[in-house]
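Section 4.2 – Deliverable D4.2 (structural model, holo form)

The reporting period included a commitment to supply a predicted holo structure for the target in complex with zinc ion. Inputs used:
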Amino acid sequence: MSNCLPNFVIEFNKRVKESEVFRSIARDSELQQEACENLESALSEIAQEKQIAVENNNEDYANLLLGCEFAAQSLLHELKMWLLLKQEKPEEAWDHLVGAQMKATRAAKADNGFRHLEHYRQHLEIIEKIVFPPQVFVSAGMIIHEQECSICGEDYDECEHIAGKPYMGNFCHVIVKDVTADHISIVENPADKRCRVTSFNVEGGSRNKMTWKIKESAENTSAPTGYAERTAQLAIEGDEQTAIDYLEKETKEITG
Ligand SMILES: [Zn+2]
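Output (structure tokens):
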């Protein structure tokens, strides 16, 4: 971030600061909801400002705004997490926690001015450990035959862009075009913590790994495939059906 920040960014920072006070389960839900709405409107303003920066070919500013965008999204995810926990929706809350962690990490990579968000990310890791029960993560192994660069649309192996780096207000990522599902495995440090074992079979049904409640076996059939579908959707974008079919078949054997 440059020493002389544009007014738009100064105003944005003020709005984010105002919302930060609601980062606690003890805060009033209605006020937290209002803070979420404020962040959402700040996000739509950032999108417009970024569009102008892109049209003006101002890459530094576009990337700074990308950092603003991800910082605001990270905070928005955290506020939603607290709201959902109060509504007894821990699984949705978990997804927002992971969203907050991922966005904070990305924001720190968008522009040097957001490096401090690494500390915020560590704070979110602590929340993960003390608020939620331990989770078992899964990772989908894929054989990738073709991958495209999100920035230039060329073969990722042949272009000069680097996945995870910002270019004119967008992060480069790899779009998987042709993939074969190979295996899934239990991992300690997954790329995406939303890919997790959500339930496992116990006598009489299926136990939810988050709430510890047992769903009776008659309703049990969708439980083992839930995370498999999720894994497939999140792991790849190019050939979801192949992966889902494969993973549904494979994960019926996993019992937690
Ligand atoms: Zn490229």
